[in-house]
Amino acid sequence: MSSKVGTDIAINGDGAVALAWKQINPDVVAAYPITPQTIIVEDFSKYVANGEVDTEFIDVESEHSALTLCSTSSSAGARTFTATASQGLAYMWEMLPITAAMRVPVMMAVANRTVSGPININNDHGDVMSARDTGWLSIFAENVQEAYDMSIIGPRIAEHHEVQLPILVNLDGFILTHAIERMTPLDTQHVRDFVGEFKPLYPLLDTDHPVTHNLMDGPLFYFPHKYQMVVAMNKALDVAREVFAEFAKISGREYHMVEEYRCDDADYIAIVLGSSFGTMKQAVDNLRDEGMKVGVAMPRVYRPWPADEIAALCKGKKAVIVMDRHLSIGAYGPMFPEVCASIAVNGKMPEMYNFIYGLGGADTMVSDFMSVYKTVEAGKANTINYLGVKE
Amino acid sequence: MSAPLTLKELNKDIPDRLASGHRLCAGCAEGIIARQILMGTDKDVIVSCSTGCFEVSTTIFPYTSWNVPMIHTAFGNGAAGCAGVETAYRSLKRQGKIDKDIKFVNFAGDGATYDIGLQALSGAMERGHDMLFVCLNNEAYMNTGIQSSSATAKGASTTTSWNGAVAYGKKEASKDVTAIMVAHNIPYVAQVAPHNWKDLVGKARKAFECGGPSFINALSPCPRGWRFDSKDTISISKLAVETCVWPLFEVVDGEYALSSESQRIADGKVEKKPITDWIDAQGRFKHLKDERWSNIVEEIQADVDKRWNKLLKLCSL
Ligand SMILES: Cc1ncc(C[n+]2csc(CCOP(=O)(O)OP(=O)(O)O)c2C)c(N)n1
Ligand code: SF4
Hints:
The structure holds two protein chains of two kinds. By secondary structure, chain A is an alpha/beta fold. Chain A is built from 13 helices and 16 strands. Chain A has helices spanning 13-24, 38-49, 63-76, 86-92, 95-101, 126-129, 144-159, 188-195, 219-251, 276-289, 307-314, 335-344, 366-377, and strands at 9-12, 28-31, 56-59, 80-84, 107-112, 137-140, 167-172, 180-183, 212-213, 258-261, 268-271, 294-299, 301-303, 319-324, 351-356, 384-386. In chain A, the strands form three sheets. Chain A has a seven-stranded mixed sheet with strand order 3-2-4-5-7-6-13, sandwiched between helices. Chain A has a six-stranded mixed sheet with strand order 10-12-11-14-15-16, with helices on both faces. Chain A has a two-stranded antiparallel ribbon with strand order 1-8. Chain A starts with 8 loop residues before the first strand and ends in a 5-residue tail after the last strand. In chain A, 55% of the residues are buried. In chain B, β1, α3 and β2 form a beta-alpha-beta unit. Chain B is globular. Chain A binds chain B through residues 27-28, 30, 54-56, 58-62, 64-65, 68-78, 80, 94-95, 98, 102, 204-207, 210-218, 221, and chain B through 44-46, 48, 55-56, 59-62, 64, 66-74, 76-77, 79-85, 87-92, 94-95, 98, 100, 102, 119-120, 122-124, 126-127. β9 (212-213) of chain A pairs parallel with β2 (70-72) of chain B. Bound molecules: thiamine diphosphate and iron/sulfur cluster (SF4).
C-alpha cells in the first residue's frame, strides 16, 4: 500500500484540489475568479502554462458561461471540471438543474462561502444549500486531505453509467481553502488508474450517431425524466459506498456515507457538515473527559441523502442536535428537517434540536460547540437556536 | 466547396440537416434560414441553440427534427454552449482522441442575441472559438408572445410596446449588434435575408471557412409577430433589402462590402424604395398610417437613410 502513497506535503485546500485535477488531467476546465476559490484555477492554469496537463483551459466571461461551457463540453464527450463559490454559484443557478437534467458528470469544486447580502466573503453553507435541490451529487470534506481525496473520488461516482450526474465537491472557504495543512498525496499513476478514462454515453461529437441533447418536454415526459434522476441518485448511494471501499485500498484512507465519532454509546449526538466536524470532535473529547456521553457525525455525502445511515445513527439517542451553517429564513436550517424526516419515517423520535451557527464566517470555537451539548443536556435549548446571537 | 453556387448543386450534394417535420408556424423564416446556413458546409456540423421559437419547435421530445447532433441548454447562453462543444472538440482533437473535421453553429433569436445573450456572445467571440453564431432576427421575443427586444424597430407595436392613445409603439430604434460584432475584430461578420438564398449560402460558406469566430445577422420575417400573411415571407424579406431597412453586406477581416441587391442600390442600378412600402406591408406598423404619427414615419425614414449612408461610407473606405 505504501508504494501507492506519495510523500507528505504542506498545501492549502485550494492547492490540494488543483493538484488532484492535475493528476486526473481533465480534458476541459472553464472557470471564473471568485474568492476563496480563485487559487484552484490559478494553480491549475500554471499547470496548463507549464504543459503539465493536456487540458483545454478556458477563462470565461462569467460563471453562467463557465457552467454552460462545462455542461456542453461534457455532453460533447470531454471530462470537464470547474470551481466556484458564493455569488458565482448563485450566478450559475439557472444552469445547475439544466446540467443535472442533461445527465453530464461535470465536477465542480465549491469553496463554500456565504451569499450576499450583505456582501461577506467568509464561510458558511448558504451557497451550496441553495443548490441542493437541483439534482447534483454533493460531498463534503473535513480537511485539506479530504478536499484532495474527494476531488479524486468525485468523478468516479459522477461518471458511473448508472449515475451520470454532476457533482459538487465542497470545502469550507478559508478554513480549508486557505489553511495550509499536511497532506499525503497519491502518486499520479495511481490517481489516473483509479479515476480511469472518461467514457461518455452519448457524446455529441460522435457525428455518425447524431443525438439531440436537452430537448423540450411536455407534461407527459418531464416528470418521468425527473424520476430517472431519482433512480440515478438512489444508485449513487451504492456506487459511493463501492468507490469509498476501492479508494481505501489504494490510499489506506477509509470514508463512509456518514462519518461517526464516538456516537455508539452516546446519549447526545450532533450532526454537522464540513470542517466543523473536526472542531466538534475536539468538543466531544473535552465533554467525554467531563463524563458526558456525547458524539458527533458528518454526512460525507449530502446528496444523495444517506437517510438510512442517519436513521440508524440516531436510533435510541436521547437527543439529536442538527448543526446548520445556513438557514432558511422563516423556517429551519436546511439539514434539520431532513434529519427529522429520516428518523420519523423509520421509528421513534428522540428530542430534536436545531442550532444555526457560524453564518458569514462567524467564528465557532470548541467551547461554543461544547455549550451546544450542555444547553441541550440542561433542557435549555429551543427547537431552533442561533448560536452566539442574542435572541 | 469553392465552386460557384448553383441551385442544382444545393439540391444534390448537401444532406438535409433539418428535417421538414418541425413545428414552426407556417411561413416562418427561421427554418428557411437555418437550412440555408447549414448548406454552407459539407463537413460534419454540430448545432447548438438558444431557447426560442426555433429551438422549441424542432426539439419536442420524443421527436427531434435534427439529423445532425444538436444541443440546447438555456436562453442567454447559446454562444457559451456552442463554445463548450467546440472546446471539447479542440481538446480531444489535440490529444488525438478524435480525428474528424467538425463545424459548429449556434442559432439564437434576437432576444437571445441582442439582449440576454450578448455577454456570452461577446465572450465567445473574444475568446476566438471556431464557431458561427447566427441571429434569427425576427425583431422581437416571439416565443413568449411578441414582446419588444432591443432589435425591435422603432414604431413597431408589440405586446410590451403597444400603440395606443398616447403611444406609437416602440420608442427606440433597434441597436446595431452587427456593428458590435464587427468591433470584436472577428474574421467574418455578415447580414443576410432569406429571400436571397445565393447570397445567404455563399456567406454561410465564408463564415464556416473563416478559421475563427463568425457572426451572421439574418433578418427573419415572422408572420405572427409582424402581422403579414404566411405566403408573403419571402416578399417581405426582399422588401426589407429594397428599402435599405436591412442592407446585405459582409465584413471580412474588418473590410466592409455590400452584396447583391444592396450593391445594386448603391450603384444606382436599382432605386431605393421608400420606408412607407415597408411599413404598409405589416400589421405591426398599421397604426403609423394615422396622420398623428406622420412625424414618426419621417423619423424612421431619416434613421434608415442615416444608417444606409454610414454603411456606404464604410464600404467605400
Ligand atoms: C432566463 C430566461 N428568461 C426568460 C425566458 C423565457 N423565454 C423563452 S424563449 C424567449 C423569447 C425568445 O425570443 P428570441 O430570442 O427573440 O427568439 P424567438 O423566439 O423570437 O425566435 C423568452 C423570453 C427564459 N427561457 N429564460
Ligand atoms: S412566432 Fe414567428 S418566429 Fe416564431 S415560429 Fe411563428 S413565425 Fe416563426
